[in-house]
Amino acid sequence: MIQDNNTNSKEPKETVRINEEIRVAQVRVIDADGTALGVLETKAAIALARSRELDLVEIAPKAEPPVCKIINFGKFKYEKQKREKVQRKNQVVQILKEIRFHPNTDSHDFEFKTKHAINFLEEGNKVKASVMFKGREMAYTQLGETLLQKFVEKISEIAKVESPIKLEGRNMNVIVVPVKTKLKKK
């Protein structure tokens, strides 16, 4: 059986404070061109930004004092979105695909499932190969171990073992990851 274990978690969005939303007494101010103006009172920094028809945007809220930049807020949001888009584009997402065997899996089925694993690895995904034991098959765990060792040898050219063969309850697992140089482009 081939299974797709894709977990996607949502992260909380960070909010950026601008102008009157900044509630600290003093801030370190950076000009639009990147020059440091020093530590100023927040009200004075907001007045300076307004005189230039720009916004005071909090860049580093955790710094002491917080760092703010005098910039057009719309332009700041646009540039931030562009940076995030480039980061997402360059990000490699690895999905864990699972292939299941039984200790008495036939050689044809083994070859067929190994070809699927090779395809998953070439796409850049991790593969978890599992041998499931039912009932009295638990007495023959060495059959499952030899099957997984044969699997690892078969795909050794394009993958390396991330976590070694181990028995967890009634399943024996091994996780393999693709070798970076052998990946094919989608």
Short characterization:
The chain is an alpha+beta fold. It is built from 4 helices and 9 strands, in the order E-E-E-H-E-E-H-E-H-E-H-E-E. The strands form 2 sheets. The chain has a 5-stranded mixed sheet, covered by helices on one side.
Quaternary state, please? single chain
CATH topology of the largest domain: Translation Initiation Factor IF3
- Unreliable spans: none
Identify the CATH class of the largest domain. Alpha Beta
Count of helix runs: 4
Mean pLDDT: 87
- Report, as a whole number of angstroms, the end-to-end distance: 24 Å
Q: Sheet bearing the most strands, described?
A: 5 strands, mixed
Instruction: Tell me what the CATH architecture of the largest domain is.
Output: 2-Layer Sandwich
Q: Give the SSE order as H and E letters.
A: EEEHEEHEHEHEE
Topology diagram in text:
Blueprint: E1 2-5, E2 26-30, E3 36-41, H1 42-51, E4 55-60, E5 67-71, H2 73-90, E6 96-101, H3 107-122, E7 126-132, H4 141-154, E8 159-168, E9 171-178
Parallel strand pairs: 2-5, 6-7
Antiparallel strand pairs: 1-6, 2-3, 4-5, 7-9, 8-9
